[in-house]
Amino acid sequence: MAESEKGLYYIEGMPVPETSKPGEPPKPWGKTQIVGKAVPRVDAYERVSGSAVYPADVSLPNMLYGAILRCPHPHARVKKVSVEKALHLPGVSAIISSDTPGANPTWTYSSGSVEIQSRLFDPVCRFEGEAVAAVAAETPYRAWDAVRAIAVDYETLPFVADERLALKPDAISIHKGGNRVEPTKIYARGDVAKGFAEADVILEQEYRTECEIHSPIEPHGCVANWDGNRLTIWESTQGVYRVQSNVADILNLPLSMVRVIGHYMGGAFGSKLQAGKYTVIAALLAKRSGGPVKITLSREETFLAVGNRPAANMKLKAGIKKDGTLTALDFECLGTGGAYPAGGTSGVDWLVRDLYLCSNVRTKSTDVYVNAGPARAFRAPGHPQGAWALEQMMDALAEAIRMDPVEVRLKNIPSVSQGRKGQPPYTTTGLKECLKEGAAAFGWQQARKQIAESGKKGTVRRGVGMAGALWAAGGGRPPSTIILKLFSDGSVNLNMGASDIGTGTKTVMALVVAEELGANPDLIQIEHADTGTTQFATPSGGSKTVPTESPAVRAAAIDVKQQLLAIAARDLKVEADSLEFKSGGIVSKTDPSRKIRIAELSGLKQRGVVVGIGYRGPNPENKIANPFAAQFCEVEVDIRTGEVRIIRFLGAHDSGRVMSRLTYDNQVFGGITMGIGLAATEARILDGNQTGKMVNRNWHDYKLPTALDVPADMVSLPIDLGDTEVNTTGAKGLGEPVTIPTAAAVANAVYHATGVRVTTTPINPVKLCRLLAG
Ligand code: MOS
After folding, report:
1. Considering the chain, what is the average pLDDT of its residues?
2. Whose CA is nearest to atom 4 of ligand 1?
3. Residue range 471-506, pLDDT digits in tens
4. Residue 270 C-alpha to ligand 1 middle, in angstroms?
5. Secondary structure, 3-state, 550-583
6. Ligand 1 pocket member 471 (CB < 6 A)
7. Of 155-159, 572-576, 647-651, 711-715, where does mean pLDDT reach its minimum?
8. S-S: 635 plus which of 10, 235, 660, 749, CB 3.0-4.6 Å?
9. Strand 361-368 to strand 230-235: parallel, antiparallel, or no bridges (unpaired)?
10. Alpha-carbon distance 258 to 19, whole Å?
């Protein structure tokens, strides 16, 4: 590149933040130059052109294809697996099952302190879709032919598919000791009896949300390849380092011998936070067949075996004074993580504990086993379920005391996390601003008034509804290590272990580097998500990726700047203190004629590279950083057909600093869309009476929301209170909070339109018609 073009790496004239001294924390950014702007994704071209390499695109010489034989019964003992016929089919190179020596390692399922040791191919299959055997063959078709040629002798066992029946005296036991995962968990503060005695109004209601399947566009899968005793895995994952440690543990390998690469992935929503059985199976098949093995699960397999958002059966009793003061909340939840411990009630009670001011709260959570696929973290685990109950209850309480639903929430804004020990304060609580500014931008008052005035006439009724939320796991946390390399021509390479799970992480990080250095974000090369070449990172989940990685990226950029200033001080024969970094160059603060371009620094030319390292510092002591939200929507209900049309949605979100406006808004639209799925279309249906099998394991019978189900009119309203405590970039996390209040807001709008409260998901025409007729 010609000398004159080198300036292109930097944005001419862009001011950059003052460089902090080594060892001193950087000052908060304040107003930013480029962070927060609506810029296209740094990898937009790769994504839309098809040149981005996803694990399913990886194709290696002599690669074989794996397929997994799965148990067709919800509960069965595997008596015999006969593979002889399958082994002799053309193109079949390896078959493994529980009988294969060295191919059946321990498989641990755990949730909190509860752990159950199973096997990769367990002799007892406790859910439909459990792995029984696996094949590697020359083509996927030959692999599936071989799977079908394996004969399995099953002893089918009685099953229980419904968590509401799992504790009945006549229910079969899925594990020794019965179907309780652990004793019912109880949380309590204050005195609920006293709280109810103080209440002017007490309401009690049961609620239920159905089980949802993650349904990422890219199914789960990997390619495994051995080079001697070194294993490389290309995996569709949220965390390459998590997969590395899972596989190393299970196969008893040193971490250094397992390399996991996951540059691109097509969605996960929590279901790809860990290695799958298919990952270990691919590695074992590759070892036995001597060639790389690719396994991509079928859509049906992803419905059965790689996680779900469990159903929640909830009961909430609430007391309120006429002035809107909540006096007591008493909540119960029965849930299931499926056939193994998997957090069947995790997070469901959190909003009841923490979202609104209330001195007297009790929650009881009971987690049981059923014969169904294990749950996995699913976008804000437990929270949308809890919001479905709490936010409908708040709506009903508001009506009972004749107060506006927004007003009743504004009466109960917390400044501390009441549900946590010691009740630590939040760094910022944007709930009030989300409610107020959201209501104003939506036109809440006018819409309520207009609908009230037009009266309940005609067969198509309008209604507006809203709901609030917080996300308990936001804010990010250590560790994160980032390396930033600045080459001799001034160009920059960012090296980070975290995965970009489709949420724009890479773009956000490029903007952080750009902000500090004045660099052109499009020209920052990013290496990421590869345990062989990038730094340790925890999985991208819990909406923690941006608030976890961005402060480390900022620290690495500052480290580079400090080193460049020191080099420039030697070149210009002045004190480093007297110099400042200015887009693409270094200038004397007192004598602007003394300046040098980065590419001209002699120390940089000599070394060829300056390496900056950034670490994620600790979180503020005794404070909690949580995102808050309020959403508003308008619906139209045809009371003859029960059809609900969602006309518009507004999401007001306090997730701290907006790091990239385009990515931010798209997270809001995506999260609302997913919440509409919970509200209106999605439900796993198990045939509980006869077969115990899932009956809608495909995208025809399991309804994801489409463009026809979501409104064209969606508004994202960022609420940024300028949180300078949360971390050095001010971001609190956005992906998960968005999906929390959506379904409850829809239910409240449907109630407003019809006077019918739908307490179970999904709100579909069949159900709503019946309720309207009643
Ligand atoms: Mo999330 S459910 O931690 O990807």
Report:
1. 96
2. 270
3. 999 899 999 999 999 999 999 999 999 999 999 999
4. 4
5. HHHHHHHHHHHHHHHHHHHHHHHCCCHHHEEEEC
6. no
7. 572-576
8. 749
9. unpaired
10. 39
Q: What's the pLDDT tens digit per position in 7-21?
A: 589 998 899 999 999
Task: Please check whether residue 634 is in contact with residue 712, taking contact to mean a CB–CB distance below 8 angstroms.
Answer: no
Tokens of 553: 């990226």
Q: Does ligand 1 have an atom closer than 6 angstroms to the CB of 379?
A: yes
8-state DSSP, 478: S
pLDDT, tens digit, 9 for 90 and up, residues 728-751: 999 999 999 999 999 999 999 999
Q: How far is the CA of 757 from the centre of ligand 1 (A)?
A: 30
Closest CA to 351 of 471, 190, 186: 471
CATH numbers and ranges of domains, the chain: 3-19+34-46+478-615 (3.30.365.10), 216-307 (3.30.365.10), 312-366+385-468+623-772 (3.30.365.10)
Confidence (pLDDT) at 5: 56
Instruction: Report the residue among 273, 274, 308, 383 best suited for mutation to probe ligand 1: largest number of ligand atoms under 8 A from its CB.
Output: 273
Residue 267 Cβ inside 6 Å of ligand 1? The answer reads no
Q: Is 270 in the pocket of ligand 1 (CB under 6 A)?
A: yes
Atom number, ligand 1, closest to the C-alpha of residue 380: 2
Residue 4 has pLDDT above 70, yes or no: no
User: What ligand 1 atom has the least distance to the C-alpha of 473?
Assistant: 3
Which atom belonging to ligand 1 lies closest to the Cα atom of 501? 4
473 close to ligand 1 (CB < 6 Angstrom): no
Q: Tell me: pLDDT of 1 over 50.
A: no
Examine the pLDDT at 549 and tell me if it is beyond 80: yes
Q: Please tell me the pTM assigned to this model.
A: 0.97
- Mean pLDDT is lowest, of 217-221, 389-393, 571-575, for 571-575
pLDDT grade, residue 774 (50/70/90)? confident
Q: Tell whether the torsion through CA atoms of 353, 109, 341 and 214 is positive or negative.
A: positive
Distance CA 274, CA 283 (A): 15
CB–CB of 292/242 below 8 Å? Answer: no
Residue 454: pLDDT band (50, 70, 90) is: confident
541 lines ligand 1 (CB under 6 A): yes
CA of 541 to the centre of ligand 1 (A): 4
Beta strands in 416-572 (DSSP E): 460-470, 481-487, 492-496, 525-528
User: Which of 503, 736, 739, 740 to probe ligand 1 with, by most ligand atoms within 8 A of CB?
Assistant: 736
Tokens of 91: 């193109």
Q: Is the CB of 377 under 6 A from ligand 1?
A: yes
**131 phi and psi angles, rounded to 5 deg:** -75, 135
